[in-house]
Amino acid sequence: MAKPEYSILLLGGDGIGPEVTAEAAAVLDQLSASPNARATFKFVPRAFGGCSIDEHGVSVTEETLEQGKKCDAILMGAVGGPKWDGKRRGFEGPEGATLRLREVTDVYANIRPTEYFPQGKSPLREELVRGTKYIVLRENCGGAFYGPKVEEPDYASDLWSYKRSEIERIARMAATLALSPAVPVKKVISCDKANVLASSRIWRRIVEETITKEFPDVELVHQLADSATTLMMTKPSMFNGVIVADNTFGDILSDLAAVIPGTLGVLPSGCLADLPAPAWTPGLKPVKGFFEPVHGSAPDIAGQGIANPIGAILSAALMLRYSFGLFEEAKAIEDAVNLTLESGLRTKDMGGSSSTKELGSAIRENLKKLL
């Protein structure tokens, strides 16, 4: 049987985005060329975000949105920058491209793994963060980000609403991940503001109903989102498992999680339209996913060749695991990253002097040994 060829919409975006996605794509090319490859990858590159505004007058074209629907998965770098500050108005600005593509592909579950590793640069004491490993799961297609907006000179509002079906599906995703090998304990910590927000009260009630009824082996804990920020810094390992939150709180908590490894540059993320793919078998239908590093476009260092490509490379590993069920290949990439860091190579954000290309090349060399 011929190897499947998976199509990937490649969106470098703005700032350092093209630099880091180039390294992630090179890793996938190396996998495709391996004699033992179980699949190959075809890239469909498109302008996205601010560079699409420059080229097409809009942050994302209808054709790119159609490609997002057609392709098996999406791999993005980052969007935005000072150049387009005057155009940052919801769906019309560079960041609006990401919102629109998430919306049309219905990738409702944003998965952001976080763990401490000795080669990192966490500002927290090692004895505090050692052993910390969790996933921040952010609901990605509802809430204040997508609600109707009013913006006037003296008044503005964003509707922050959720339906039962939206909460049920993210609760099921949280419990499914909690039962997976990706986290050390079968626990879901649901973060909300049920003490003041009606949308949080329905969130808490439906998360409770769904997980206790359908996933009795998963421990469920409710935590107010504001106090969670303090506990994540003072008792981080208590969150081992899966943190699930709505679009707004999930955005905040997942960025805060970067303190654990010490830099946003190493954190990957993936957004899924369905539960993760099972282990790969011939004919497996991919799960639609949108993968990107957690960091932003970092325009202050764009073009200098010093951006950390690890977040993008690990995002490609998440794609292999969750969209294509290629568990062994995903693990090989993650092991290659760890071997590279253990050798002492670092980019500037991690206290080293390696360039983007040097670090990417070293990861590929280690990957070659593991394949």
TrEMBL record:
Top-level taxon of the source organism: Eukaryota
Pathway: Amino-acid biosynthesis; L-leucine biosynthesis; L-leucine from 3-methyl-2-oxobutanoate: step 3/4
GO CC, any one term: cytosol
Biological process annotations from GO: L-leucine biosynthetic process
EC supergroup of this enzyme: oxidoreductase
Cofactor: Mn(2+); Mg(2+)
Oligomer and partners: Homodimer.
Name of the molecule in the record: 3-isopropylmalate dehydrogenase
Organism: Bionectria ochroleuca
